[in-house]
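Deliverable D2.4 — example input (structure tokens):
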């Protein structure tokens, strides 16, 4: 009986061992060596979740895979791993891979690596034949705050595609550099309101005081979103010149505009005008989401101004009623023949 128990125990142990999960890293590496490209891509995806320091080298090897979707997956995984040591190989892929999907994925991966050395390859990619690659390069240059990118990005503000001009203006703002000021100032006159809004936002992020005059003019733009972005930008530059435009926008029919206006007041408002405007808006607001944003804006304004509570609004004293002047007594004429 004891022998039977030992045999059964050994069998169960053998079964348990055979069912034990394989090492995920080793299994993923095995998949990258499979003849089936779908398995190789799966292996590349699995390696993006690996903590093994050897994963980057395996993925770099897949950047030369015959299948474009495997190369793209490898580039994506290197980005997910934040493998900064792979920056040079990804930059080379941006410049030389024949498949635009692979080049686009390599550009996107470089955004995760934050390596300034990749800037030249990304600037060159602004002239790529593929529109998606160009869009990705514009965005990545902004994310990297790449030195020397202001000029090339500024040129894209002349692109016939408004979408490209919008993303170029956005990335110029992300550079947070006064080198972007001339191009963004010019973009405030763009025919597309989205471009103008991004340009105003970018000027606020530039930290350049010389942008104030242009932003003060933009506060009178025909588009409410441009006015609000200009007001917010002025607030970031320490100028409350757009506050009245934001207060006016609290009455806009569009709930998203009212939310944006409340946020601008939190950024640029003062105690004298900001709190009364937000309180008045809160009393008439019917949208719960907007009410929540207004409440949050009040809290942010308090914190920014270093106040514990909003100052009490001074109520003008009612004028005291004038006392009626006493009526003069009527004069009586003496009766004829009588002396007064």
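Example output (designed residues):
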């Amino acid at each position: 009986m004891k022998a039977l128990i030992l045999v059964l125990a050994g069998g169960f142990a053998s079964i348990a061992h055979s069912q034990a999960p394989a090492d995920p890293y080793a299994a993923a590496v095995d998949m990258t060596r499979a003849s089936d490209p779908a398995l190789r891509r799966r292996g590349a995806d699995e390696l993006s979740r690996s903590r093994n320091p050897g994963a980057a080298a395996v993925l770099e090897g897949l950047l030369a895979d015959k299948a474009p979707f495997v190369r793209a997956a490898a580039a994506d995984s290197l980005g997910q791993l934040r493998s900064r040591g792979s920056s040079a190989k990804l930059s080379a892929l941006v410049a030389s891979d024949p498949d635009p999907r692979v080049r686009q994925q390599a550009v996107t991966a470089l955004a995760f690596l934050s390596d300034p050395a990749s800037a030249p390859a990304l600037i060159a990619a602004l002239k790529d034949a593929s529109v998606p690659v160009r869009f990705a390069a514009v965005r990545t240059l902004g994310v990297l705050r790449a030195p020397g990118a202001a000029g090339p990005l500024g040129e894209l503000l002349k692109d016939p595609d408004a979408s490209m001009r919008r993303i170029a203006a956005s990335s110029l703002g992300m550079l947070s550099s006064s080198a972007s000021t001339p191009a963004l100032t010019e973009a405030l006159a763009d025919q597309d309101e989205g471009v103008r809004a991004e340009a105003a936002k970018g000027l606020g992020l530039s930290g350049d005081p010389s942008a104030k005059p242009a932003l003060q003019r933009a506060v009178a733009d025909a588009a409410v979103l441009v006015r609000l972005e200009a007001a917010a930008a002025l607030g970031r530059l320490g100028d409350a010149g757009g506050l009245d435009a934001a207060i006016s926008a609290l009455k806009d029919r569009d709930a998203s505009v009212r939310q944006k206006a409340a946020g601008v007041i939190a950024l640029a408002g003062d105690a004298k005008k900001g709190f009364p405007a937000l309180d008045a808006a809160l009393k008439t607001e019917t949208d719960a989401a907007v009410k929540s944003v207004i409440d949050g804006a009040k809290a942010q304004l308090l914190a920014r101004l270093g106040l514990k509570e909003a100052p009490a609004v001074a109520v003008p004293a009612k004028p005291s009623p004038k006392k009626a002047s006493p009526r003069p007594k009527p004069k009586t004429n003496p009766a004829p023949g009588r002396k007064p």
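The radius of gyration is 34 Å.
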